């Protein structure tokens, strides 16, 4: 039987966001997501701890039964020496074999792609959340904007109604 210490448990303890691809959820329909570890060099980890990374042009793909992250920009570590890393190098993602098989079967269908959604530290380890995505059409984007605008108007109206009381 577990003993209650009286402290509030936080499910996000040890979770620190580094970079987020906000544009991905606007440009794509996200079908499924996975959390993957990354094989990094020491200077990459130090640059990430400084909070510097960009997922804007990144994507993932499967090659020889392994998942690789491409075109994610982690700038060189400023105090690094000749051992510094290349900013846009290919990085291997660490996933279970079953997850890789699922990714392979889903991503081989036409129109689907793997994109990084967020990059974060979880309990001291660098993780990336990748999503299986299909591109949105222009009318889908307009509908999303209209829905968000309608929700914003409803919030304004509710706040004004509350203030009048």
From TrEMBL:
Any one GO biological process: trans-translation-dependent protein tagging
Annotated keywords: Cytoplasm, RNA-binding
Pfam family, any one: SmpB
Residue ranges of the TM segments: none
GO terms, molecular function: RNA binding
Source organism superkingdom: Bacteria
This protein's GO CC annotations: cytosol
Role of this protein: Required for rescue of stalled ribosomes mediated by trans-translation. Binds to transfer-messenger RNA (tmRNA), required for stable association of tmRNA with ribosomes. tmRNA and SmpB together mimic tRNA shape, replacing the anticodon stem-loop with SmpB. tmRNA is encoded by the ssrA gene; the 2 termini fold to resemble tRNA(Ala) and it encodes a 'tag peptide', a short internal open reading frame. During trans-translation Ala-aminoacylated tmRNA acts like a tRNA, entering the A-site of stalled ribosomes, displacing the stalled mRNA.
Family (UniProt): Belongs to the SmpB family.
Name under which the protein is recorded: SsrA-binding protein
Source organism: Actinomadura soli
Lineage, uppermost ranks: Bacteria, Bacillati, Actinomycetota, Actinomycetes, Streptosporangiales
């Amino acid at each position: 039987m577990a003993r209650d210490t009286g402290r509030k448990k936080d499910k996000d303890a040890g979770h620190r966001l580094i970079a987020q691809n906000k544009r991905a959820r606007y440009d794509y329909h996200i079908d499924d997501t996975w959390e993957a570890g990354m094989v990094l060099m020491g200077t990459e980890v130090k640059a990430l701890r400084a909070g510097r990374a960009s997922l804007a042009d990144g994507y993932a793909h499967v090659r020889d039964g392994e998942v690789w992250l491409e075109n994610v920009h982690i700038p060189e570590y400023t105090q690094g020496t000749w051992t510094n890393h290349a900013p846009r190098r290919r990085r291997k993602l660490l996933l279970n074999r079953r997850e890789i098989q699922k990714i392979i079967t889903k991503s081989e269908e036409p129109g689907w792609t793997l994109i990084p959604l967020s990059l974060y530290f979880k309990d001291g380890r660098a993780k990336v959340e990748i999503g299986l995505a299909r591109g949105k059409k222009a009318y889908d984007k307009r509908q999303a904007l209209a829905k968000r605008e309608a929700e914003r108007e409803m919030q304004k109206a509710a706040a004004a109604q509350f203030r009048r009381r």
